[in-house]
Each structure stands twice: as structure tokens, then as C-alpha cells.
Amino acid sequence: MKSEDAEPRKEEKPTQKEETKALREWLVGQQQAIRTAGMPIIVLVEGWAAAGKGSLINELISEIDPRFYNVVSPVITPEADARYPFLYPYAKAIPENGKIMFYDSGWMEDTVRKYLRREITKEQYKARIRSVNEFERQLRDGGYLLLKLFLDIGRGEQRKRMNALRESFETEWRVSADDLWQQREYDAFKETYRGFMEKTGKAIPWHTLDGGDRKEAVHDALQLLVDLLQKAMEKGRYVGKPFQESFPLLHMKKLSEVDLSPALTDEEYKTELKKLQKKLGKLHNVIYRKKIPVILCYEGWDAAGKGGNIRRIAKPLDPRGFDVMPIASPEPHELNRQYLWRFWTRLPRSGHICIFDRTWYGRVMVERLEGFCAENDWKRAYNEINEFERQLTEWGAVVLKFWIHIDQETQLARFNDRQNTPEKQWKLTDEDWRNREKWPLYEAAVDEMLAKTSTKNAPWFIIESNDKKYARIRTLQIVIDALEKACEAH
User: Fold this and answer.
1) CA 309 to chain centre
2) Other Cβ atoms closer than 10 A to 2
3) Are 76 and 284 in contact (CB under 8 A)?
């Protein structure tokens, strides 16, 4: 019989096991809501070798629909990927809207190991830190949810786990030479890991989990992921505000100030074209041998002559060493990712040339003027593009950007010529005529683009193209001059 004076029974707290089960059930139950909301989620799992990163990811995905997530291990970089920029394997793996991507180690592990092996210098290490902060911030500002976890274990525990793995023929392969090196250099890794997290944890924090207690690590990781998702579902998709970093910008003329009268005779054109193409062909062999990547970006008015200009650049090149990337309206799977993704995935390998016919600058022109992105998005893009191009030039790429320029009268004459010539009619679309009506708006957008994104290392060149022959020769001269300087510097 219960005494009236007895204290009321305290409600028992759920056990860790019960909490973990509830968190997992919530995550499973919200899959469709996350997909419908179009939330792209990245879970980066870093940590010590043998800390249980793979096991943790396996626990996190155990009840999730396999169509809803992917797991990648980009730290194991294939030789082919090693010929791309540092962030390439991570950027190309970002998920589509409404899906989760789990990275089994990533930009932290790759950077720390290369730094401690002295494969990158202190200055390169600093540049990587900056690039990581830019990359993470761009993802966040574009609506991505990013959870960064670090699994921590002590030196003794790591040694114990490695020894256990090495004792069995079935598991010894899981302990690599790099892992054993990390065990020997535990203190150096610990200090460098700490420094990396301090330098990259301000905008998007790191969360350290106790890898010594696997059940607790799973519980805490699920709790952090659920908290992140609940907050996002409550507040809606994050949209970053624009800001402008101080880049070394070059002074650019406004389009209205450009003299479009330069022209060449047929004889001058033929002589120069033959000489310059021969020189470019030889330079292509040198940049291939020296593994210098080259990125040529073409923008310009409709009918300005981009295609013909590109053909004169491409003709003397070895077809095995270059690509031309025509950029049209983004496909659905491209629209479902951060806008730079489709350009990250088209970058050339070192030693190769990539010619972009239209580029990432569509963000601040057609997408801006046609309302395909919000005002904050295109205003933020100037800085994001400068950061992207700085990462390319720090990788070693030669980046040249050409605005192929004509006046309105020349464009109208070329439009009429296309319309009246059957074999050219395919080049002219209704959209070309609509864009022509918006010439003043586009001109203002281009002037702003040139002023805000022509940097010392990735300059813009306005190519006078009322005379196509002159435009082709001038572009060839600029490309050859830049490649000669790059070859001399290597």
C-alpha cells in the first residue's frame, strides 16, 4: 500500500539506446519531407585512422532509403583526379537537392596528410585553408546543410585497434602504411588537426565525437544531424547575403568606350593566322609536357563571332589535349546543385586546354536579367566567381576570359544574313531577337561584370569583333603571349 507521504515517483529518463532509436526513427520518418523541401545535406566524417569513421557512417545510413543518400571516400584520390584542383573530388561529389552525401574523410584529411608529408608548402597549406572556408561558405550560402564531425581517439586506443586489425588476415588490409605513419606521428597529427579545425570552424563549426565509445558517437552524431535538420525545416533554406572581398582588380573600359574600328585585310589575316597557329601548336606540346592547365572562357553578344574565333584557336591543337565545352541552359540535375558544380565537373586535367563557349558568368548576366536566380544569388556570385578563379590559378591554371564585342548595327546585319541564308538559319533563334531588345540591360550587366571580376590572375579581354578577322588574330596573340609566360615560369 502506497504511503501518502511517499515522494512522487521520478520519471525515468530515456536510455541512450532508446534515444538513439528515437533519433533514427525521426530521421527515417522525415526523408520525404527533406526531399520535398529540396534540402541538400553534406555530412563530412573526419577523424583518426581506426577511429570508426566507416562504422559510424554505416550506423547513420542503416535505416535510410538507399535512394536518398550516397557515400564517397574522396580522400582516396585516383591518379586521374590528382591532375585536377585540390577541391575537385569534393566539389564534383556534392549532392542534389533533397539528398544526403556522406564523405568518408575529405578535404581535412587530404590537406593535413600532404602538409605533414611536406608535399605542400606552408603557403599552399594556408591557401588550402582559405579555399576550404570559401568552398564551405559557398555551399552554405547556396542552401546546403553541412555537418562536420571529427572522431577522436587516444594514441593508445588507436594502437590497440590497429594491432587487432593487423592480427587477422581478413582485416589487415584496413591498416595502411599511411595509418601506421599517423600512429608514429600522433602528436604532430593531433596538433595539425586542432589547427585545421580552429581555422575552418568559424562559419561552420566542427563537432568532436568520442570515438572510444562507439554507441555514444552514433547517438551524438544522430542528435547533431537531427538538430541541424529540424532547425532548417523550421527556418527554411538559408540564403547567403552578398559581400565583396578585396581582389586585385584591373581597370576595364565600359563597352561604350571601346573602339570597334580595327580591321585587317585578307592578306594580313592569312599571313598572321598561319604564323600564330603554328606557334600555338608548338606551345600546346610544351604545356602538355609541363602539365600546365589552360582555361579559355568565351562570352559575348549573339552573332559576335565566338564560334569562328574558337575554331581558329582549336585548329592547331592536338585533339587529344583539349576540349570545347558549349554551355547551354542547365539540365535538371545541374539546376539541383550549387551553380558552379557543372563547371567544376568540366575542368581540364593538368596539361590540357578547356575552351568554354559560355561560362559561369551566366549567373550575373542571363540568370540575373531573366530572373532565373534571386537578387542575393547573382550579387553574391561576383565574389564567389573571383574565389573560384583564384583557386584555379593557385592550382596553376592559365585563365583567360574574352568578351567578344560588336555594336548593335553589326549584330543586326549578321542576324539578317543568318535569316536570309538557309545553311545559317539554325544559328538564329527567337531568343536571340528577344535578347537584342534587352541590349541596354545586358550592356549594363556586362560592364558591372567586367569591372568586378577582371583580376590580375584571371583577366578579361574585350575583343573588338566588328571585323572577325581582327578579333581572331588578337585572341590568338593574347593566348600565345599568356602561354609563353606560363611556360617560362615553369
Assistant:
1) 28
2) 6
3) no
Placement of cell 576570359 in the chain: 401
Q: What is the DSSP letter of 169?
A: T
Q: Nearest to residue 298, comparing CAs of 462, 485, 427, 477? A: 462
Classify residue 478 by burial, with Cβ atoms within 10 Å: 0-12, 13-18, 19+.
middle
Residue 485 makes CB contacts below 8 A (sequence gap 6+) with none
Task: Show the cell assigned to 366.
Answer: 542571363
User: What is the CATH topology of the domain spanning 16-235?
Assistant: Rossmann fold (3.40.50)
Q: Give the CA angle between residues 396, 88, 37 to the nearest 5°.
A: 145
Q: How many CA atoms lie within 13 A of 330 on its CB side?
A: 20
Q: How far is it, in rounded angstroms, from Cα 44 to Cα 464?
A: 48
Say how many residues make up the chain: 490
Site of grid cell 566588328: 466
Which contiguous run of DSSP H or E holds residue 47? Answer: strand 41-47
The architecture (CATH level 2) of 262-489 comes to 3-Layer(aba) Sandwich (3.40)
Q: Do domains 16-235 and 262-489 have the same CATH topology?
A: yes
Quote the cell numbers at residue 223. 542528435
pLDDT string in tens for the chain (490-residue length): 334 444 544 455 679 899 999 999 999 999 999 999 999 999 999 999 999 999 999 999 998 999 999 999 876 666 666 799 999 999 999 999 999 999 999 999 999 999 999 999 999 999 999 999 999 999 999 999 999 999 999 999 999 999 999 999 999 998 999 999 999 999 999 999 999 999 999 999 999 999 999 999 999 999 999 999 999 999 888 888 888 888 999 999 999 999 999 999 999 999 999 999 999 999 999 999 999 999 999 999 999 999 999 999 999 999 999 999 999 989 999 999 999 999 999 999 999 999 999 999 999 999 999 999 999 999 999 999 999 999 999 999 999 999 999 999 999 999 998 888 888 888 888 888 888 899 999 999 999 999 999 999 999 999 999 999 999 999 999 999 999 999 999 8
pTM score, two decimals? 0.92
Q: Which residue from 292, 314, 107, 115 is spatially nearest to 197, judged by alpha carbons?
A: 107
Domain locations along the chain: 16-235, 262-489
First to last CA, the chain: 91
Do residues 245 and 386 lie in contact, with contact meaning Cβ atoms separated by under 8 Å? Answer: yes
In sequence order, what E strands does 282-352 have? 294-300, 322-326
Task: Please tell me the distance from the alpha carbon of residue 236 to that of residue 230, in angstroms, as a whole number.
Answer: 10
Q: With beta carbons less than 8 A apart as the criterion, state whether 225 and 27 touch.
A: yes
Q: DSSP strand E in 358-464: where?
A: 398-405, 460-464
